[in-house]
Amino acid sequence: MKVVAFMPVYNEADILPFVLAHMREQGIDVHVLDNWSTDGTFEILMRTPGITVERFPASGPSDEFSSRDLQARVEELALHSDADWCMLSDADEWRRSSRDGERLVDAIARVDAEGFNCIDHQVFNFFCTDENWSGNPEEYFQSYNISEAICRVPQQKTWKNTGRPVNLTNSGGHAVAFGEKYLSPEKFTMKHYPYRTPAQARARHEARLRRRSESELQAKRQTHYDLIPADFSFCWDARELFAWPKERLMLASPIVPGSKPKFSILHTSARPDAWRAVYDAWMSAAAHPEDVEYILVIDPRWGFPPVNSGDSSCKFGMRIQDMVVVNTGRMCYVDGVNHAAQASSGRVLIVVADDQFPCDRWDVQASNGLPVSGQVEFVARVDTGTPGEKERNMAVMPIVSRARYERLGYLLYPGYESMMSDNDIAEHAQQDGCFVELDTPTFPHRHSWFAPDDKPVAFDAAYARQNRQEAYEIGARVLADRRASGFGSKLAVVPSATVPNTGKNLAICLPGEWFHSSWVAENALQLCCHLFGRFRNVWPVMPVVSDVYKMRHLTFDYIKKLPQPVDYVLWIDDDNLLTAAHFEMLLNDLETHPELSGVVGWCWIHPDARMSCGAFTEQMGAQSFDYQKVMDCDGDLIPIDWSGFPIVLHRASVIDQIGPFPFRPILNDNWTTGMSGEDTSFFERCGEKGLKFVVDRRVKVPHLKFGDPQPDWMMKAPRKGTASNGVMSEPLLPVKPGLLEKVRKIAGL
Description:
Elements: E1 3-9, H1 16-25, E2 29-34, H2 41-47, E3 52-55, H3 67-79, E4 85-88, E5 93-96, H4 104-113, E6 118-119, E7 121-127, H5 137-140, E8 143-145, H6 148-151, E9 158-160, E10 188-195, H7 198-211, H8 214-218, E11 242-243, E12 263-268, H9 275-285, E13 292-298, E14 323-326, H10 333-343, E15 348-352, H11 362-369, E16 379-381, E17 399-401, H12 402-408, H13 421-431, E18 435-437, H14 461-466, H15 469-484, E19 505-509, H16 518-534, E20 537-541, H17 548-560, E21 568-572, H18 580-592, E22 598-602, E23 604-605, E24 610-611, E25 613-617, E26 621-624, H19 627-632, E27 637-639, E28 642-643, E29 647-651, H20 653-657, H21 678-688, E30 693-700, H22 739-747
Parallel strand pairs: 1-2, 1-4, 2-3, 7-10, 12-13, 12-15, 13-14, 16-18, 19-20, 19-21, 22-30
Antiparallel strand pairs: 4-9, 5-10, 6-9, 7-8, 8-11, 15-17, 16-17, 21-29, 22-29, 23-24, 25-26, 25-28, 27-30
């Protein structure tokens, strides 16, 4: 097998001989793109046998550097390469197999034989702790960090060469994009040596700042260099780093398989001089701090120093598994909490503030009362000592399951600033039947208004902003709207800047006649803004025909006539709302499960509040799944025979595979109406063609039939935690052979 690494370099003479030798040992060919180095790099390249070299750009040296132009050149080289696999690898990156002793070329061949065509990497950043480096960096540097700010960025830079174009530029070179991408679940190792000595590190940093082009800055590229303080020493304290090989101490991080923390503390702070006492209190009171990650959200507008978001826990004197996140949204509590939630990885999320403290052994107390290991949705309230907390139905310090957060796409509803958000989270959970009262010792809320006389707390600028009249007015207005809509309108949107462009094309099918509804129109507009940033091209398809069968048929016809082929087709009915966060869940489902043809969201449907998906039965036709049994399954993806079309995302290949007239009714005298609806007709024909669809149970969307229907028991009964052998409603009617076996296999039952 031939594997070629495209290696951009600029002034890397100190490390270049070692990385080229490493690539040779690993069986990798190297093509170097020298950006007109001035430190002897090019001369070293000319003396090195077995590699190919070009100077980029071919027009000659420039005072500015464009990473986009460089990545476009790599795309061109890869397209014409005769290599079996390609990779984009910098001169300070040592790539290795995840298996000890296995050469990189052999590991890539193994992944290829397993049917995958793209490889991600686990990044370990090695930093200088003195000024004495010499020799092979892999032998000299033994202290590393695996900060989540870097490691959460994909490193999908190794891909199989199919002879077709790939896209690197849309992701800033971090995630190659191409059709039918099958990412290996096995991450390879990437050891990164960007800062070898303080002098080299400072020169590198200054060169990066000096050479950035205006187009790079406008595209928000290379801006992370601005966050490094001017007086930073570029020399790390080894005590704040890990020792190689892979010593992780108390690391509890999502980047290490199997080590997800149980609890995430979400602390948004407005007081640079007060957050530390809260952090120390929560860490010292935890019986098992190794099961806890602490997310501190800071805001320079409150006087915090500028930092590199997510990469500064050690600089703040926190543990390596903790994280510092910069609030780039509104200067308010709600945006801070949602920033923290987005960065978290724990199974249980606990919202705290500068005046919120724990009880002793708080993690044990919570573990005793909550299903912290499952996929059950809940919002729990504890006693904080806040006057009237229960009487006014507030959750001052809410404890929320990840399942709840991921389904909603937010932790505190984004329409609030601060006031009334604690009422909203409690009432919404009570409506959904997932609210829990925990019987624990008091978690002291040391607010200025009710602090004990012997321990007074000043009413400072942060309290004044949070409690200003405008915040109360906003809160009252939003809460009234939320109550009126059943907590289902004007849903949150994840900013598209948080995720890279896929480089693919999407068709959005909007069948129906009611998209002028203010709720639906606003949601569709916000979602489209997100999608335009995620896809190369987005085409809305809106045939306005009253005949539902003909409308869906015409939609497929229009898609076939679009200027470019699409990769995905998204259906949104005119009385359903889809958040960007929920869309990302659906897209991730398809990208990580190539065996699936499509994935659906679900809603409650009239007249008897049933789930909008299920299985076909021998006599009754489409039978809905039982909600409780679906929620009791271990997995989030449940195989389905049919679904309504509230939200459907499927591969465009389904259009050709399913055949002509997929929505045409199917006649059956045993069914209530004697014929199938357009939606069930589609899924029946998908089943006949062997096309696999699942429902993502996290993606529950509102159904705006003048109110979101839901069963009465959801308002009254708490959610059960017992397992079930199936997901069908009772009584269990005959279902298509093999369906329940598939359900049990995927759900782990």
